[in-house]
Amino acid sequence: MTIRVVIVEDSPTMRAILTNRLSREPDIEVVAAAANAAEGRQMIRELDPDVVTLDVEMPGMNGLDFLEKIMQLRPTPVIIVSGATQKGADTTARALALGAVDCFAKSELGGGGSAFGDGDQLAAMIRSASKVRFAPRQAPPPAASTARVASQARLSIVDRPRLIAIGSSTGGVEALQTLLGDFPVDCPPTMIVQHINERFAPAVARTLDQNCPPRVQLAEPDMPLREGNVYLAPGDDRHLGVGGTSQLHAKLRRGEPVSGHVPSVDVLFASVAELVGAQAVGILLTGMGSDGAKGLLAMAQKGARTIAQDEATCTVFGMPRAAISLGAAKVIAPIGHIARHAFHKAA
């Protein structure tokens, strides 16, 4: 089946590059290319594409507002095609938190020859995004109910875990913002592998740090893991794991892909299972594929509390589904309740 794509990009040169590159793929059809948000909105309404590529740094418009309207009025898989400047990366991270499913970095030079040296990556992103099916948006729970869930997580941590490990992929930045927003400021040390381009990982950490009670930062080699801190894998060619005995610390090591990824959720979870065992909590969130399923099973077999995000609140149910099918998840919960389960064994 042909994947129908609408490109929204203000640069005529970049529109031409994108159109030319994607048109080479036999299963992808560029049905329209818009120069601004107004054109893009009209084309999306009329053509109902499978995937939208969006440059959120277009002059004369607020790309984040445009994305938010897309997700509210006509939820469509959106891939952010962004520059690698700090401003572009920060905007991309906020867009991922609003529901964009992935991001592709433009060349810093912006030239036609180098911008798509790995053009197959963009095509692969589009193929994955086309499989995303958004669940109908539900009315938010009453404010009192939401406040009660959050306060239970923040103010009364029962059986405090020594370490929390989280894995996520497609749709994960949005899910992480919700999950970490319910974490207490003095949460147990928390480690995250989110499948993200390394150019955008620092901006994702900053965005989560600005919107969540604990401190969120990129993990560094041998960094001590302390309460109130969340450590995000840098997203480069290094796997993230845990080391140490009395004082846990972050381990970063180069290696081949595991379960198709570097960094790999399976590597993180297996490391935590081996070193922390029953004193840990493992959480597997939305994502394509099966990375993290075997690692979560290893954690469960060591006695850790293991939690998978439910299908209704996942952007893509692949990773949690794989874990559930292995019997790795002791709890299956909507994203808004996972923090409570992480801190309350009998929740």
Automatic annotation (TrEMBL):
Matching Pfam families, A to Z? CheB_methylest (PF01339), Response_reg (PF00072)
Q: What is its EC number?
A: 3.1.1.61, 3.5.1.44
Say if the entry is tagged with keyword Hydrolase.
yes
Keywords in alphabetical order: Chemotaxis, Cytoplasm, Hydrolase, Phosphoprotein
* Reaction(s) the record says it catalyses: L-glutaminyl-[protein] + H2O = L-glutamyl-[protein] + NH4(+); [protein]-L-glutamate 5-O-methyl ester + H2O = L-glutamyl-[protein] + methanol + H(+)
Entry PTM? Phosphorylated by CheA. Phosphorylation of the N-terminal regulatory domain activates the methylesterase activity.
Q: Where in the cell is it found?
A: Cytoplasm
- Which domain of life does the protein's organism represent? Bacteria
Query: Per the database record, which ranges form the Response regulatory domain?
Result: 4-121
* 4-aspartylphosphate sites (modified residues): D55
Q: What class of enzyme is it?
A: hydrolase
The UniProt entry annotates the active site at S169, H195, D291
Check the record and name the CDD domains matching this protein: CheB_Rec, REC_CheB-like
Please state every residue range assigned to the domain named CheB-type methylesterase: 157-347
Among Gene3D superfamilies, the record links this protein to: 3.40.50.2300, Methylesterase CheB, C-terminal domain (3.40.50.180)
**Cited PROSITE patterns:** CHEB (PS50122), RESPONSE_REGULATORY (PS50110)
| NCBIfam families, per database record | PRK00742.1
Relate the protein's function as given in its record: Involved in chemotaxis. Part of a chemotaxis signal transduction system that modulates chemotaxis in response to various stimuli. Catalyzes the demethylation of specific methylglutamate residues introduced into the chemoreceptors (methyl-accepting chemotaxis proteins or MCP) by CheR. Also mediates the irreversible deamidation of specific glutamine residues to glutamic acid.
Family, according to the entry, reads as follows:
Belongs to the CheB family.
Q: What is known of its domains?
A: Contains a C-terminal catalytic domain, and an N-terminal region which modulates catalytic activity.
Which protein are we looking at? Protein-glutamate methylesterase/protein-glutamine glutaminase
